[in-house]
Design goal:
This protein is an alpha/beta fold. 24% of the residues lie in helices and 23% in strands. Among the domains are: 105-213, Glutamyl-tRNA Synthetase, domain 3 (Alpha-Beta Complex); 266-340 and 470-556, Beta Barrel (Ribosomal Protein L25, Chain P); 346-463, Ribosomal Protein L25, Chain P, CATH 2.40.240. Helix 2 (43-58) packs across helix 11 (305-315). Mean pLDDT is 95; it is low at 1-6.
């Protein structure tokens, strides 16, 4: 990551690593980001990415990218490639340290045989439902399987036949022989291997049995020489099993697992299963829908990697679960774009204005700053003509008290240009206003009255003769409830039916005709926008609103 990252704050993991380095426990810090390639990464994963890569970077170590790809039924090459792209988008590189748990399948298999030979694993023939029943409950000890004491040689032969593909899916599993009375359910003879007759996206058709995540994860850490295995608190109960495997196998190293609180973001769901449902059921247009909390969705919407990194640093790393309001993420985006986004004029809901006393064929050009606080960003020229477009909300025929924008008889400043006074309106047959008529003050070029009179209102505009037409999409939060994923309710009942509004005929200043998808703009008085990289084409401009200029939801 570049050196322009946000200031690094202290947290308990940094303190642990500092102690480990100072007392000589480790000479080099090695972390890893180990996603399962069964979906697209979301904003919660960004916290883990920034933490693992960031810690390695801060302490001069390295971070591995490893795919814990143990379930071929749910994993796809598409997900693998999207994960790589998302990590790179956030600003991190793994260099030569790209790994797959599936590359360790032969070693994991040999270690499974080792456990059988040590009397610490056995082939189970109970059904999945019976295994679940035999495991007991949180308040009731489990019951030993009738196959738990089968001879070592018999389990070994059956396991080898499982590998050879002699049995159908679900016919047998390999279980660890630990403690069926343990208060920790994960230690009640967990399943190590199951039969799956399916091709694997990385290793192809070479396997008929696949290790469970818990059996592959810790041993892969050990093979890679991971020093600090950092995961979220949901894996805290798995830690005794993680250590049991490492203590009972001839592994080359023994990593230490540390847990931190996962990111819980309001107005979003973080379950991959539920995100997958939103995609497959057509609720959203895909994993990269700009309303989705996936990194690909945030990227398409226009969020910047710097803003996401700032957010992950700002929310901190702790041991207690907490909820982070969506507005915190949005404010990080605003802060970043406020510094970097050039300003442009855009009218989203256009209303035509005709300046009656302005020469019909005259065109003037006005210089407009690209950023009012950043003179080094330069300026541009905007064209002005007799016919303009303004925002519908910037005109009121019967203005309420405190309305300082355009209204009959009132003067208003057109940003960068002139002062105009509304003299009348034209309506259609239904009584709707379709055009506003005005007179301009020729002596007010640049927006200042020659006689010093004060003009309270300033509005933006676009020259009708020079305007570009574009589709603009205004995104809101995908859910109306701050915690749609709470237990006992269907999260889909909180879907926001107004999460996107499409404006098909917005008017933009002419300079945007040559923009690219990587440039973000502030549409003055409207928010921050970027060209949609999927739906835009040379003959069609489609802009996404990234974020509003302020937190509109706090006012609701």
């Amino acid at each position: 990551m570049s050196s322009d990252s946000t200031p690094i704050s202290s947290n308990f993991l940094r303190s642990i690593i500092e102690d480990d380095l100072s007392n000589g426990k480790h000479g080099t810090i090695v972390t890893r980001f180990p996603p399962e390639p069964n979906g697209y990464l979301h904003i919660g994963h960004a916290k883990s990415i920034c933490l693992n890569f960031g810690l390695a970077q801060q302490f001069g170590g390295r971070c591995h990218l490893r795919f814990d790809d143990t379930n071929p039924v749910k994993e796809e090459l598409e997900f693998i490639e999207s994960i790589k792209e998302s990590v790179r988008w956030l600003g991190f590189e793994w260099g030569e340290h790209l790994y797959y748990a599936s590359d360790n399948f032969e070693q994991l298999y040999q270690w499974a045989e080792y456990l059988i030979q040590q009397g610490k694993a056995y082939v189970e023939e109970l059904s999945a439902d019976d295994i679940r029943i035999y495991r007991g409950t949180l308040v009731e000890a489990g019951k030993e399987s009738p196959f738990r004491d089968r001879p070592v040689d018999e389990s070994l032969q059956l396991f080898r036949r499982m590998r050879a593909g002699e049995f159908p899916d679900g016919a047998k599993v390999l279980r660890a022989r630990i403690d069926m009375s343990s208060p920790n359910m994960n230690l009640r003879d967990p399943v190590l291997y199951r039969i799956i007759h399916a091709p694997h996206p990385h290793v192809g058709d070479s396997w008929r049995i696949y290790p469970m995540y818990d059996f592959a994860h810790g041993q892969s850490d050990a093979i890679e020489g991971i020093t600090h295995s950092i995961c979220t608190l949901e894996f805290e109960d798995h830690k005794p099993l993680y250590d049991w495997f490492l203590e009972n196998l001839p592994v080359p190293s023994h990593p230490r697992q540390y847990e931190f609180a996962r990111l819980n973001l309001t107005y979003a769901v973080m379950s991959k299963r539920k995100l997958h449902e939103l995609v497959t059921q057509g609720t959203v247009s895909g994993w990269d829908d700009p309303r989705m909390p996936t990194l690909m969705g945030l990227r398409r919407r226009g969020y910047t990697p710097a803003a996401v990194r700032t957010f992950c640093e700002r929310i901190g790393v702790g041991r207690s679960d907490s909820w982070i309001d969506m507005s915190v993420l949005e404010e990080c985006v605003r802060e970043d774009l406020n510094e970097s986004a050039p300003r442009v004029l855009a009218v989203l809901r256009p209303l035509k204005v005709v300046i009656d006393n302005y020469p019909v064929d005259q065109v003037e050009e006005f210089e407009a700053a690209n950023h009012p606080q950043r003179p080094e960003m330069g300026s541009r020229v905007v064209s002005f003509s007799r016919e303009l477009f303004i925002e519908q909300d910037d005109f009121s025929e019967a203005p309420p008290k405190g309305f300082f924008r355009m209204s009959p008889g009132n003067e208003v400043r057109l940003r960068y240009a002139y002062i105009v006074r509304c003299t009348g309106v034209i309506k259609d047959e239904s009584g709707s206003i379709i055009e506003v008529r005005c007179q301009y003050d020729p002596a007010s070029r640049g927006g200042s009255a020659a006689d010093g009179r004060k003009i309270k209102g300033t509005i933006h505009w676009v020259s009708a003769r020079h305007a570009l037409e574009a589709e603009v999409r205004l995104f809101d939060r995908l859910f109306t409830d701050p915690n749609p994923d709470r237990g006992g309710v269907d999260y889909k009942q909180f879907l926001n039916s107004d999460s996107v509004e499409v404006l098909p005929a917005a008017k933009l200043e002419a300079g945007l005709s040559s923009t690219d998808c990587e440039t973000r703009f502030q549409f003055e008085r409207q928010g921050y926008f970027r060209l949609d990289p999927q739906d835009s084409s040379p003959g069609r401009l489609v802009f996404n609103r990234i974020v509003t200029l302020k937190d509109a939801w706090s006012k609701k």
